[in-house]
Amino acid sequence: MRPLTSEDPRTIGPYRALARLGAGGMGVVHLARSAGGALAAVKVIRAEHAADPAFRARFRREAEAAARVSGPWTVPVLGADTEAREPWLATAYVPGPSLGEVVGAGGALPPDTVAALGRRLAEALAAVHTAGLIHRDVKPGNVLLALDGPRLIDFGIARHEGATALTATDAVIGTPGYLAPEQATAGPLGPACDVFSLGCVLAYAATGRRPFGEGGAAGVLFRTIHEDPDLTGVPPVLLPVITACLAKDPSDRPPARRIAADPGAGASPDLRDPREAWGQPGTRPDSSTPWVIPAGLTALIAERSAAALTLPDPEPLPTTLTPAGDGTGDVGEDGAESRRSRRSRLARRRLLTAGAAGAVLLTGGSTAAWLAGRQRRAGSGGPSAGSGEPPTYTIGLHADLSGPGRATGLAHRRGVELAVADHNSRKEQALRLALRTEDDAGDPRQALRTADRLGADPEVIAVVGPTGDVLREEIVERYAKARLAPVVVAAGATTVETGSGADLHLCLTRTLDRALATGLIGYLVNTRPAKRILLVQDAADPVLGGEIGGTFRNATPTGSTLIEHPLPRGAAGYGGAARKAVTARADAVVHAGGDASRAARLATALADAGFTGTRLAAGPALGPAFLTGAGRAAEGWVFAEAYSDPAALPAARAFTAAHRKRFGAPPATWAAEAYDAVHLIARAAGATSASGELRSGMARRLVRTEHRGIVRTLAFHASTRQARHENGIFLYRIENGRPRFLGPYDEL
Question: What is the DSSP-derived secondary structure letter of residue 336?
Fold first, then answer.
């Protein structure tokens, strides 16, 4: 998944484009959202290809073919417009990787997984053939892996059985290495060619190699036609069916429906027991056999699902569909930019904001030279160009310094002050920093006035904060109105609606609480594998608890069984949850909720019941109420958090020492993250080249900037303006009554 570019449409029929899933010479596949919130994969054909009547006819045929096929292992068509200037086809979105990605990264799959894969793909092909179609391009890249099984996609070159191809005579259509001999020789085609391709796919999945070798297309096609496949390494239980599928004569291959329903029948003349074909004694080898999830797939789907669900709608461009170019600008054959393209480009420049265009940008060049050559400074009243003095930019701090959240606010202030002092102490800096601090006392109405005051100050180029637990949309709207970017470090939840417009001026540097379950799953996969996981769904926290529970349901670790137990509101139910953990022989218990006192009561009940397995929860459930309420029962609990312990990080050693020296105490939670946020702003300010518009362009620049901080490297998904959480989720374990920092979840 990649960010949209300036050439991508923002609306495609009734869909809003969110990101790119893939691109080729013919068009682009977008991740998009319907008006009802459903995600879809929308293929858009470039206008120059759609202008070709033959190509449009081919795409029209693809849409018709895909719509005719139905089955559990194919992807349903949601809509299409084959007559649009840039025709499109929408199908359901599958957040899983392709078979090619999984095998390419991890090698051959286990025999049981390949067997289940074969049954389900055969059932998908049977549905294709029942519809009177031939897929013609069955290959690992066209097989997506979901948690319940594979999905066969892409009917781009499918056609009716017996129909005349819309290609030149003797043209070879498909992917060398997965083509049947009759396809390689441009002979008459039938459903059997898909069965041959299925055999190639299964051989690849079982060995990690193509059965007819690598190299140029001509050599691969020659071996496909004249030589036997290389099936070295194919497990014996898979060999009969794969061999039968790869028969040179189409009439010797079993039909897909027989492979799906009874793989032994027709696999070879001397194979009569269908159980022998797939090596599953005593079971009927059909698609009802459990899908064996490949290792690592669960966590990958969880991360992709979380990323997709949090994508906002981008700000629309002037037109519904813009021509898709090559990213170099709309330039005609004579090298001159057309008037229409120039107007479109200028309009996009005004409208595009952070997340709507571009990938992460590593800044370069001489910012000092740029600053020295500017005619005037933006967002600051410091020295003018040519004075020899670097400009001074002001960063605002919006914090609760005297209210209920003053501990977090104070940590922010100390981290920000150290960052400003550290930046200004370095020689040959291209810019200097100043700080303006505003206290909202944790009061919502005062927070709005604080945003107005900072927004009205032309010297302020960006704001760190607010520092509360929940980021409210009305505050972000105030900053958006002033075209001032708040860089939010600590808020674990937000009421900002994606696509509302206000979020286009927002930069979030932490993983939100709803994504912390990914760290817990990683712990149960890599650190303390669990075969039986009890999910205690806390009804007292339906929002965060529901999000944690949903992540575990959608991404249960491979080979694990998820057992669910509801925890009702009120004071009852803890003992029942603890008894369920013991009687169900659970290896791990997950508290799906964010209430620290309720997590403490669950911890106590589990200890009283004698449960000694792994116990986990997301960060909001870790607090004084948990530690004091659970007492000794808190020992061993593991929590996923979005903040680090700088005292345990070698990269933060100097920061920790400076904090102790200046404030007489080690850095508190969020101090180091606030320190990194200031340096991120300084880096983005030094890379901004829009004369006179420094602060209004900061939000876009921030999410296109990568900064290697003392806590972690800050890099962003440009389409969501949220920090990448690959290294932004940290685990803590309670030891001797205190949380002990374990490290990033993916490094344990």
Answer: P
Tell me what the pLDDT averaged over the chain comes to: 81
Torsion of CA 437, 443, 445, 447, to 10 degrees: 30
* Interval 57-104: pLDDT, tens: 877 877 877 787 878 898 888 888 888 888 888 888 888 889 998 898
pLDDT digits (tens, 9 = 90+) for 453-498: 999 999 999 999 999 999 999 999 999 999 999 999 999 998 887 6
- Asked whether the bond before 391 is cis by omega within 30 degrees of 0, the reply is no
What CA–CA distances, in Å, run from 70 to 62, 74, 144, 358? 14, 7, 16, 37
Crossing angle (nearest 10°) for helices 191-207 and 99-106: 30
Q: Which residue has the tokens 């021509």?
A: 323
Distance CA 159, CA 164 (A): 8
**Beta carbons within 8 Å of 154's beta carbon, 6+ residues apart:** 137, 142
Rg (CA), the chain: 29
From the candidates 8, 112, 137, 595, give the one annotated as an active-site residue: 137
Q: Is 43 annotated as a binding residue?
A: yes
Helix (H) or strand (E) holding 220: helix 217-226
422 is catalytic: no
Cβ–Cβ under 8 Å, residues 574 and 604: yes
Do residues 267 and 62 touch, judged by C-beta distance below 8 A? no
Query: Phi, psi at residue 442, to the nearest 5°?
Result: 75, 10
- Locate 641 and state its tokens: 């958090």
pLDDT digits (tens, 9 = 90+) for 160-170: 454 433 333 33
- The pair of structure tokens assigned to 9 is 């449409």
Sequence-distant contacts of 659-663: CB under 8 A, at least 24 apart? 659/414, 659/415, 659/418, 662/414, 662/418, 663/414
- CA nearest to 234, candidates 114, 356, 351, 326: 114
Rounded to whole angstroms, the Cα distance separating 342 from 338 reads 6
CA torsion through residues 246, 251, 257, 261, sign: negative
Fold for the domain defined by 515-641+732-747? Rossmann fold (3.40.50)
The three-state DSSP-derived secondary structure of 504-515 is HHCEECCCCHHH
Question: Tell me, which fold does domain 367-512+655-717 have in CATH?
Answer: Rossmann fold (3.40.50)
Strands (E), 204-312: none
**What number does CATH give the domain 102-290?**
1.10.510.10
Q: Please name the residues in contact with 412: beta carbons below 8 A apart, sequence gap of 6 or more.
A: 397, 399, 464, 465, 467, 489, 490, 670, 671, 674
Q: What is the dihedral of CA 73, 74, 77, 82, to 10 degrees?
A: 180
Amino acid symbol at 739: P
| CATH architecture, domain 11-93+305-351 | 2-Layer Sandwich (3.30)
Chain center to CA of 395: 31
What does the alpha-carbon distance between residue 369 and residue 335 come to, in Å, rounded to a whole number? Answer: 31
Ranked by mean pLDDT, the top range of 49-53, 76-80, 108-112, 329-333 is 108-112
Omega of the bond leading into 466 within 30 degrees of 0 (cis): yes
Q: What is the domain partition of the chain in residue ranges?
A: 11-93+305-351, 102-290, 367-512+655-717, 515-641+732-747
Task: Answer yes or no: is pLDDT of 320 > 70.
Answer: no
Tokens of 330: 């709309």
CB 640 within 8 A of CB 730: yes
167-188 b/e with 16+ CB inside 10 Å = b? eeeeeebbbbbbbbbbbbeeee
Residue of 642, 562, 565 lying closest to 605 (CA atoms): 565
Task: Give the residue carrying structure tokens 């080729």.
Answer: 24
Q: How far apart are CA 551 and CA 545, in angstroms?
A: 10
Rounded to a whole number, what is the distance in angstroms from the first to the last CA of the chain? Answer: 26
Whether 102-290 shares its CATH topology with 515-641+732-747 is answered no
Q: Find where tokens 């297309």 sit.
A: 217
pLDDT tens, position by position, 654-698: 999 999 999 999 999 999 999 999 999 999 988 754 434 678 888
